[in-house]
């Protein structure tokens, strides 16, 4: 027994000594790695490009993900409730909740509207011009392809796709198939009457949501008059009360504001490559400006269908036909919208050689994708944007059709 206890004590001492030496080595190694990272600095982060892939389409029975976490939304609602209980009658100070415009975003609204016009003009030149690039769309689904020949990738989920082995039936496409601008109801008074009722749906004009966002941010259009206030409104127990008298001056106070920024003169003679580069630049400018405006002006989308509404609240028109609409009496399940809901980029397969053979179904794992507007402009001669290089898989060399079985 004595010998056994001595041996166990010796073994425990040896284990402690080995573990202490191991911890010392680990600590020295971690400190050396930390010193190397400090010396290297942030140089790697500047040169490394983040990998971007095409977002997976959600199932029809699934709701769209919330841009803001639900817990954060609950926390904000509780803070607003405490603020109303603390001061039932208060003057709203922050724009645009108080009915006033955000001064810094008025010029951005005009820039987004001008970029939208340049984008549509450029697409008309590239799709319907003399040296147009063919756009194909499937007759039975929403698939779009840019090129002379439609691809042979079996991804059709439309009507009777099983009898065609999921092959697409290609027809001629247009500008609406490249980029989508959903329509929404126009709000004459975004603070006083933020919601459109179901019985008012035929008397309220509809316009593209990107245009409505610019109008609410300060853009003046004669076809869509908007009430502009000069004094902030009050909130009495959660209800908006406006003590400003209703006169015609309030309606037309911003009617002629900065009218010179509405349209710019376009160059008369431009090549196809120049039009493609300018169109792509306008698309990026429109998205960037829309993101800035959406940080202040609310945009809502249905969680199950593509309906969009610009304003403090979503409308009450009962026209949702998506999943579970019977439980909502046809009303939409409104949630916060993203830039993808406001400007829908239709993702298409990237074609490296437009004059080559069509894309094969066996090699689809080696092909990349890109928004249709980016693919169209790149085929027309524009430079490939840096943020879409990884998505288009330009660093991947696809094998030959008879070699794909040999690739690991």
Explain the overall architecture.
The chain is α+β, with helices and mostly antiparallel strands. It has one domain (70-388). It contains 9 helices and 15 strands. It has helices spanning 2-40, 43-47, 70-86, 103-128, 209-217, 248-251, 272-294, 339-342, 372-380; strands spanning 89-91, 135-138, 144-146, 170-172, 179-180, 183-185, 206-208, 234-236, 239-241, 299-302, 308-310, 334-336, 344-345, 347-349, 369-371. The strands form 6 sheets. Strands 1-8-9 form a 3-stranded antiparallel β-sheet, with no helix packed on it. A 3-stranded antiparallel β-sheet has the order 3-2-4. A hairpin with a 5-residue loop joins strand 10 (299-302) and strand 11. Helix 7 packs antiparallel against helix 9 (372-380).
